[in-house]
Specification:
globular, 209 residues, 12% strand, alpha/beta, ATP-binding, Rossmann fold, transferase, 5 strands, 9 helices
Length: 209
């Protein structure tokens, strides 16, 4: 459930999409409109500088996940959590609240600056509990054959591996259920730019209501 935008408050927009659909391509286009973009993946890396979080991770998964210099041993942590769904869920329960807090701080700062809108770019937008922070959600989609081909080319992997990566995520049709705006990126970058132009027009209309 997204929040209810109040009065002249800044429009808080969530941008997501399945692997290979072109979420990042749309995000890059939106930057050209001087819209603030918060990259949740970058925030997801920055959080591991938080000493309290690192201590909580060490308590949960053992001292093998912390290097001698006090930094996170990502390789060891990955071995533990990516082979055990319960442990991955535990890690997410520790990290997602910290990411949400950092993103909220950025959103508040943009609002103080007088920005009309800001975008949270997050692959796991729906899965990580960001919805209550948002006024609207954009989902980028594409046809399944295009998605498969893009993943194979981008990740230099087999068709079987690409299908596995696609299947490990929430299906496109499920994500679309949460969207107010759906952008089809089955075509070229020029076509996506045209879609972005139309999307901006609709977002500006939403702000003016």
């Amino acid at each position: 459930m997204v929040r209810n935008k109040v009065g002249d408050n800044m429009l808080r927009i969530g941008l997501t999409g399945s692997i290979g659909c072109g979420k990042s391509s749309l995000s890059n286009i939106l930057k050209k409109y001087n819209i603030p973009i918060i990259d949740a993946d970058i925030k997801g890396r920055e959080i591991y500088e938080d000493k309290e979080l690192l201590k909580a991770i060490e308590d949960a998964f053992g001292n093998s996940v912390i290097n001698k210099d006090g930094t996170l041993n990502r390789k060891n942590l990955g071995k533990i959590v990516f082979s055990d769904d319960d442990k991955l869920e535990k890690l997410n329960s520790l990290t997602h609240p910290v990411i949400r807090r950092m993103i909220n701080e950025d959103l508040d700062e943009y609002e103080k600056r007088g920005e009309k809108m800001a975008v949270i770019d997050a692959a796991l937008l729906l899965e990580a509990g960001f919805m209550s922070m948002l006024d609207t959600i954009i989902v980028v989609t594409c046809s399944e054959p295009v998605q498969l081909q893009r993943v194979i080319l981008r990740d230099n992997c087999s068709e079987e591996d690409a299908m596995g990566r696609i299947k490990s995520q929430m299906p496109q049709e499920e994500k679309v259920k949460y969207a107010e705006f759906v952008v089809d990126n089955s075509g070229t970058l020029d076509q996506l730019a045209e879609e972005a132009d139309e999307l901006i027009r609709k977002l500006e209309e939403k702000i003016e209501k």
